[in-house]
Amino acid sequence: MSRGPRGSNPYSKPDVFTQRAKAAGYPARSVFKLEEIDRRVQLLKQGMKVLDLGCAPGSWTMYAATRVGGKGRVRGIDLTPLNVALPANAETRAGDAFTPSPEVDAFIRELAPYDVVLSDMAPSTTGNRFSDQQRSADLVDRTLDLAEELLAPGGSWVAKIFMSEEIQRIRTRVRTLFTTERIIRPEGTRSVSYEVFLIGEKRKPV
Ligand SMILES: C[S@@+](CC[C@H](N)C(=O)[O-])C[C@H]1O[C@@H](n2cnc3c(N)ncnc32)[C@H](O)[C@@H]1O
Question: Is the pTM of this model over 0.85?
Answer without folding.
Answer: yes
